């Protein structure tokens, strides 16, 4: 998530940087420069079937009817619902879409803005990056079925994005102060002890399937972006593969295959196999263009893709 200036991509209030990396961050971290106002975006769902060792995709189905910013999809564990962020009347809140009933319900409705919805391990609460009234960006949690929010980390800020490693440990994208780079930090929730493990990370943090590791994009320079793994046992990182040029959004299939998207196309790669990114899908005939974020359901049978209109890419 990032501030209205931009990287919280998605945005939010004024002088910080919400989901995309705002003006200050743009001068420090090699990344695309988003606009001050979050771009209009839509979320599509694509059904996936595995056939003869390959993947067959159904037609993309748009699940967001509201014309505006709809982004940051997160599949719930049963794969039947999605949490996402939507900005309406200049206000970012969290919504849930039920894939069976096709019904949308609102999870948060506050004077503040909430981004990056993530179901916590208790299955009851949703953690979010919240842009508070004074512009502070901290990690909060909301009961999924309604109730009062509570603060998760009081002193760690400004948070851009987050990943739960376990019920008491987080990987956090922390926005850099003026003249300082953004950092990737491992934080203990109880003590709030933080350790910086990388500088200039990308916004996507993912657990690697079937391993005690997570992944992130390391933006080494404007031209060199690498997906890396971080080993939670040894606290060391290693390179997996270069990203597609200029692309930082990715996701893992349950099999351990990486997916990335560019324009209207979807690409796959099995890390450390010595092969390049392979095109596996093209949604241009369905009118889907400008794919940015992607998310994969727990079983790998659905993909959520976020698209931007031509004028916003």
What does this structure look like?
With 313 residues, the chain is mainly beta. It has a single domain (23-312), classed as TolB, C-terminal domain (Neuraminidase, 6 Propeller). It is built from 1 helix and 25 strands. Strand 4 (69-75) and strand 5 form a beta hairpin. The radius of gyration is 18 Å and the shape is globular. The chain starts with 22 loop residues before the first helix and ends in a 6-residue tail after the last strand. 42% of the residues are buried.
Gist?
This protein is 1% helix and 46% strand. By secondary structure, it is mainly beta.
Number of helices in the DSSP assignment: 1
What's the mean pLDDT score? Answer: 89
Segments where pLDDT lies below 50 for 5+ residues?
A: 2-36
The CATH topology annotation reads as Neuraminidase
Strand/helix succession: HEEEEEEEEEEEEEEEEEEEEEEEEE
Strand percentage lies at over 45%
What is the domain tally? 1
Indicate the radius of gyration in whole angstroms.
18 Å
Biggest sheet: strands, sense, closure? 5 strands, antiparallel
Q: Provide the CATH superfamily.
A: TolB, C-terminal domain
Shape: globular
Distance between the termini: 18 Å
Helix content: under 10%
Give a count of the beta strands, DSSP E runs of length 2 or more. Answer: 25
Structural class: mainly beta
> From the 3D coordinates, which CATH architecture would you assign?
6 Propeller
């Amino acid at each position: 998530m990032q501030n209205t200036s931009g990287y919280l991509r998605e945005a939010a209030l004024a002088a910080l940087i919400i989901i995309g990396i705002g003006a200050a961050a743009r001068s420090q971290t090699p990344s695309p420069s988003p606009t001050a106002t979050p771009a209009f975006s839509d979320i599509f769902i694509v059904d996936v079937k595995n056939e003869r060792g390959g993947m067959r995709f159904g037609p993309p189905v748009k699940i967001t009817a509201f014309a505006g910013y709809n982004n940051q999809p997160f599949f719930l564990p049963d794969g039947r619902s999605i949490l996402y962020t939507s900005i309406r009347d200049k206000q970012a809140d969290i919504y849930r879409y039920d894939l069976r009933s096709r019904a949308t319900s609102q999870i948060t409705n506050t004077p503040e803005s909430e981004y990056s919805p993530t179901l916590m391990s208790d299955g009851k609460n949703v953690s979010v990056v919240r842009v508070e009234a004074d512009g502070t960006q901290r990690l909060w949690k909301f009961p999924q079925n309604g109730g009062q929010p509570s603060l998760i980390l009081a002193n760690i800020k400004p948070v851009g994005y987050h990943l739960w490693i376990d019920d008491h440990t987080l990987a956090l994208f922390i926005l850099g102060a003026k003249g300082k780079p953004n950092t990737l930090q491992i934080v203990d929730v109880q003590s709030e002890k933080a350790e910086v493990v990388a500088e200039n990370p990308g916004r996507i943090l993912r657990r690697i399937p079937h391993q005690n590791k997570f992944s992130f994009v390391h933006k080494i320079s404007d031209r060199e972006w690498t997906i890396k793994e971080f080993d939670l046992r040894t606290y060391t990182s290693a390179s997996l593969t270069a990203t597609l040029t200029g692309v930082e959004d990715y996701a893992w299939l349950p099999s351990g295959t990486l997916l990335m998207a560019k324009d209207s196309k979807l690409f796959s790669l099995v890390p450390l196999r010595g092969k390049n990114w392979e095109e596996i899908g093209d949604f241009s005939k369905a009118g889907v263009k400008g794919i940015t974020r992607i998310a994969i359901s727990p079983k790998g049978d659905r993909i959520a893709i976020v698209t931007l209109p031509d004028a916003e890419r």
